[in-house]
Design brief:
The strands form 2 sheets. This protein has a 6-stranded parallel β-sheet. A two-stranded antiparallel ribbon has the order 2-6. It starts with a helix and ends with a helix. The protein is built from 9 helices and 8 strands. The model has no long low-confidence stretch (mean pLDDT about 90). It is of the alpha/beta class. Helix 4 crosses helix 5 and helix 8 runs parallel beside helix 9.
């Protein structure tokens, strides 16, 4: 009876916790510890029937690549559920070999929360991150994906605030060179003090970059 009820399941969205190693200046979280990480009994035992039938799983943190439950979950999926494609958002600081291999093997989408291409702006927004390491991890994944011709989509995302207004177009141009599949711009400026004229010019430049890039 349970398996019949789950037959139509296409996607499972698991919030694995809020543990994170980076402090984005615009982040909504009040706690970055492991205290609220999803209990092993839920993801490792209770949800097993769902894994057998679902087609895609979204792994949501916090930062999945530093969370023990996420890493163990990825090992489980790679060993026992090769039919499942995956989606994950990451800050990109610790893209481990095992996680990289899993996504290359099973496909899906990895979205990197970059928020800026410029190193100075990036470090202003992404406290405790490592600009060089993140971009090296991203470019390695894109290069291997391209060489192996794997069906893995790569996304870049940014939360739009005053310091990174004019990072939209550079990020789109950078995405076109990887190539990435999508650039996500999350509008946060309406809740902050911002020069609306500057915001309009920045968004216009972003549309021009999309038209020039093609395929993003």
């Amino acid at each position: 009876m349970q398996s019949r009820k789950l037959t139509g399941l296409k996607e499972l969205y698991l919030v694995m916790g809020y543990q994170c190693n980076v402090r984005c200046t615009f982040c909504f979280q009040a706690d970055f510890s492991s205290r609220y990480n999803l209990d092993r009994r839920i993801w490792r035992e209770k949800l097993l029937p769902a894994y057998a039938v679902t087609e895609n799983i979204v792994i949501q943190g916090g930062e999945p690549t530093i969370m023990r439950n996420c890493l163990e979950f990825c090992d489980l999926l790679g060993q026992e559920y090769p039919h499942i494609t995956l989606r994950m958002n990451t800050n990109g600081t610790r893209l481990t070999d095992s996680v990289e291999e899993l996504f290359l093997a099973q496909g899906g989408t990895v979205t990197f929360s970059l928020n800026a291409l410029n190193k100075t702006v990036y470090e202003q927004l992404m406290v405790h991150s490592d600009h060089a390491r993140v971009f090296a991890n991203l470019e390695r994944l894109a290069r291997r994906r391209n060489e192996m011709k794997r069906p893995l989509e790569i996304g870049l995302s940014m939360v739009l605030v005053q310091p990174n207004l004019f990072e939209i177009a550079p990020l789109i141009r950078y995405a076109a060179g990887l190539p990435a599949n999508v650039v996500l711009v999350h509008d946060w400026i309406l809740s902050t003090e911002v020069d609306l004229g500057m915001a309009q010019r920045a968004v216009a430049e972003g549309y021009e970059a999309i038209d020039a890039a093609g395929g993003i």
